[in-house]
Give the backbone structure.
Amino acid sequence: MRLCKTIPELRSLLKAVRAEGKSIGLVPTMGYLHQGHLSLIREARQRCDVVVVSIFVNPTQFGPQEDFARYPRDLERDAALVAEIGGDVIFAPEATEMYPPGYSTYVEVGGVSEPLCGASRPGHFRGVATVVCKLFNIVRPDIAFFGQKDFQQVLVIRRMVQDLNMDVEIVDVPIVREPDGLALSSRNVYLSPEERKAALVLSRSLNLAREQVAQGQRDISQLKELVISRIKAEPLANIDYVEILSIPDLKPLDKLQDKALLALAVKFGQTRLIDNTVLEA
Amino acid sequence: MRLCKTIPELRSLLKAVRAEGKSIGLVPTMGYLHQGHLSLIREARQRCDVVVVSIFVNPTQFGPQEDFARYPRDLERDAALVAEIGGDVIFAPEATEMYPPGYSTYVEVGGVSEPLCGASRPGHFRGVATVVCKLFNIVRPDIAFFGQKDFQQVLVIRRMVQDLNMDVEIVDVPIVREPDGLALSSRNVYLSPEERKAALVLSRSLNLAREQVAQGQRDISQLKELVISRIKAEPLANIDYVEILSIPDLKPLDKLQDKALLALAVKFGQTRLIDNTVLEA
């Protein structure tokens, strides 16, 4: 496995790969890899000749009051995991390599980036779209892999790819959960033992909604109320948002027809977690 | 010469070109071609194996009160000119091909896009950066060619290419002028005979500034005043801006050291013309 820290280094490596007619898969991550990331890398390994994993805690997608500084980092551990699972290249640039002095260009995706995390975290998806655009231009992957845990992120990136005519296939991969249901997240390490236990309310409230739908509930506001009251029953949980929106446009709905996204963001102490499920009528 | 109206058509054509190992040059235009455009195409012809000329009056770079609807168009004439000069492909999409329903992604370049035409035409460079980003992704040119008449546009595009790690070389080509000094522009057709005559004040005032610099003038505000008073002496001229700014950052200057951009935008009746020159100490 090769570790590249600079753009020219990665480019020259991938130029040789491309010249051999090999396909390239990209798994963009912020590192501190868990089984969710590894399932993306495994999927890439199956579909592409060469698998590039980018590890970059992207400053432009964090707000000024957010956890950029304390976001967990461990490149050595990440590199061992990528090597073990059969990734070929890690691209781990410094922030100044991606955003040198004078940097001033951003990609803005409207519409689908506005509700949910777009409303809670102003500028977040601008940073995501910009760094993913840059990574696509640097790596020129045939396929890029993203986790469904960041469901809205996938929709934003698909919109960007379509609108800007980027020549890359986007594949999204299901959420990986702990045995007790907690969705894997690099931010789970922030949780105290009590918060870790309380955070189970997320997957449980999603399950509750799915059960209600299975039993015939189609009223969106009743489903939302059910999830909200379930989460509020957990004293350590502080709701940021609970929404049920259309797919792929993320517009409000009255009735569940076909399918919809149930997405939530909840704080436990200082730690904000997200989770989601697709409700299918 | 081939005329492509759709993105898939162009892409499949260029895929074959690329498979043969041929280099691709792109000349992005809004059509109604004049000798300025033709000098770009000639430059592309010399440097690249296959020359693509895009002809697209891009709605997103026009403000609501601007001349999008009446901007001159003549694809048949343009096609004959491109064929004559040896262009290989014209890409002339409909607006809905480039911006289908639901379109919502834009590229924003800060800093260099803010003064001059960026201040006079809010959103203009957002539209320019977005359409050029799209064209680069569709065509994937080795080199793209732009005219120095739109000097700020070249700086905005270079900034975007650098910031977003686009793999394309940008070449800029000198302004082409009528024998009497008027810079070529598709908008010159709007001018009445009187306005056409009055518009000579643009190139003359640029020459005047260059002469003053040759004689040792280095004071930016005095040079600006000179140009402004020269233009104001023409009763049909209405100044939008006259500025002398640093290259490539377009920041204000007190003294001319090395070089600077003298740029102006002036209205003659309803017609807004731009012109510029580089002042060299």
